[in-house]
Design brief:
The protein is mainly alpha-helical. It has 21 helices and no strands. It is globular and about 65 Å long.
């Protein structure tokens, strides 16, 4: 039922001001439910990583197979996101949201109860499948619930902070659960999030199918799903094989061809899966690029800094997670400031490139770490700068990527945002891992590899190489967004705003 219908049904028994207040309060409760669901999906990209050594020891799988616990989730999630977004548009965002939550929770229980490697990987893949339905439904619900400019800015500052800091939350929670309980609880914990999100979604959300008259684009679905699968799988293979391996470049090439074919088909399909009108707006395209670059660059912060803190500074998994809290705090504060104050006043052309530049400076500063570095002086200030920079990029970019989009395209536009973040993360994983490994190998080739001090220094070389490349990603993001975004503050056309369905 729409907000207007609710008012009409109530007659004159409630004053308009009171009704507006109730609707507004309901919207913020919906934001809370969406935030919990999004946090569940985002933190699962990293929460299992810290528990992997324990899971490997318990279930007895090899180092070569270990990557599949992470890759299975990424492959299913990335390749099915656009389909999940379109399903939400066609059949309703509420059922997509609720089914996604139930399926994700069920897959999490299956993973936590795993008796072998195959069962765990299957569960992780199923998490990715249902996550691909849940994530775009959650973002499109946010997009169609908050249409007032000021309320929308606040809502997206919260959502963007969750999307940006969720990986760090996963590291912290994964460390706490692994140390205090067992690796299986890094999966079982999703039941807590799922129950709260499901009950809240069932009670608060209304169902509306904005693209109910359209049909599912099956050829487009097959092309884009197989294309994204090939791209993510190709980058995953680059980590374990070589860039010259057919399993790397072959899949990347095939993925590129399939995505080009998908783009061609979308210009001719009667009911396109991803209408070109979603991509052709300059500000929206710049926002998609921002999310892609952020996904690639953030990997250098989370993974390699986690290694450094645990292996070189001797932090426990829990202490490692706590070490990321200041970065999360800086990100959340800047998310609020950037979306509610800076972007409305100065426009994204200034704020988002400046955020990228700040994050790049923080990453360059972080390359100064060494074997005898201190967290308080050589890591913490840099994390605060990086967090502030990313807080000025992620939430505004996510808001602008879906701003002004027609309600019938809200799901697929939201799915595109999630796809960009996931593909960016895959690119960062493969590229930075191989570059870091090459740096360590090169260092040992010119030094005595048997010397323990040289081995330790080689790891520092690998970390700093990854940080330099992450800084390069962020610097490239600053240049690209400076060129793409329009000048001035964004002027949202009221006629183009999505209809509120609650």
């Amino acid at each position: 039922m729409s907000q207007t219908d609710t008012v009409e049904a109530a007659g004159t028994s409630a004053p308009p001001a009171q009704d507006a207040h109730e609707a507004s309060r309901r919207r913020w409760w919906i934001l809370g439910i969406i935030g919990i669901a999004q946090l569940m999906v985002v933190l699962d990209a990293t929460i299992v990583n810290i528990a992997l050594p324990s899971a490997q020891q318990d279930l007895g799988f090899s180092n070569d197979n270990r990557q599949w616990v992470v890759t299975a989730y990424a492959l299913a999630f990335a390749s099915l996101l656009l389909l999940g977004g379109r399903i939400a548009d066609l059949f309703g965002r509420k059922p997509a949201f609720l089914i996604g939550i139930v399926g994700f929770a069920g897959a999490s229980v299956l993973g936590g109860a795993s008796t072998g490697f195959g069962m765990l990987v299957t569960a992780r893949a199923l998490q990715g499948v249902f996550g691909a339905l849940l994530a775009p439904a959650a973002l499109s619900l946010l997009n169609t619930t908050f249409t007032d400019a000021k309320e929308r800015a606040k809502a997206f500052s919260v959502y963007g902070a969750i999307a940006g800091a969720g990986g760090a939350v996963g590291l912290l929670l994964g460390g706490l659960l692994t140390d205090a309980l067992d690796w299986r609880w890094t999966l079982y914990v999703n039941l807590v999030f799922a129950v709260v999100a499901f009950v809240g979604g069932w009670l608060l959300l209304g169902n509306h199918r904005d693209a109910a008259g359209a049909k599912l684009d099956l050829p487009g679905t097959l092309l884009v799903s197989s294309g994204l699968f090939a791209v993510v799988y190709g980058f995953s293979n680059a980590e374990t094989h070589d860039w010259s391996s057919p399993q790397t470049w072959g899949f990347l090439l095939a993925g590129g061809v399939l995505l080009l074919a998908f783009t061609w088909w979308q210009t001719r399909a009667k009911h396109p899966l991803l209408p070109m009108r979603v991509l052709l707006d300059r500000d929206r395209a710049a926002s998609f690029v921002s999310v892609l670059v952020t996904g690639a660059g953030m990997f250098g912060v989370f993974l390699f800094l986690t290694y450094y803190l645990q292996l070189n500074l001797g932090f426990s998994p829990t202490k490692t997670g706590v070490a990321f809290l200041p970065m999360m705090a800086a990100l959340m504060v800047m998310a609020q400031v950037s979306t509610t104050m800076l972007v409305p006043r100065f426009g994204p052309k200034i704020v988002i490139p400046a955020g990228f530049a700040l994050a790049a400076i923080g990453m360059v500063w972080l390359t100064g770490i060494g074997l005898d570095s201190s967290f308080s002086t050589d890591v913490l200030p840099q994390l605060l700068v990086i967090g502030a920079g990313l807080g000025a990029v992620m939430p505004p970019a996510m808001s602008l990527a879906t701003s002004g989009i027609g309600a019938e395209d809200a799901g697929v536009a939201s799915a595109t945002v999630n796809t960009m973040q996931q593909v960016g993360g895959s690119i960062g994983t493969a590229l930075l891992s191989t570059l870091a490994a090459s740096a360590a190998t090169s260092y040992l080739a010119s030094h005595n590899p048997a010397d323990k001090l040289n081995q330790a220094q080689a790891t520092i070389e690998s970390y700093t190489t990854a940080f330099w490349w992450s800084a390069g990603f962020f610097a490239a993001g600053a240049v690209i967004t400076l060129l793409l975004y329009r000048r001035g503050a964004v002027q949202q056309d009221p006629d183009a705003a999505p209809v509120v369905h609650m």
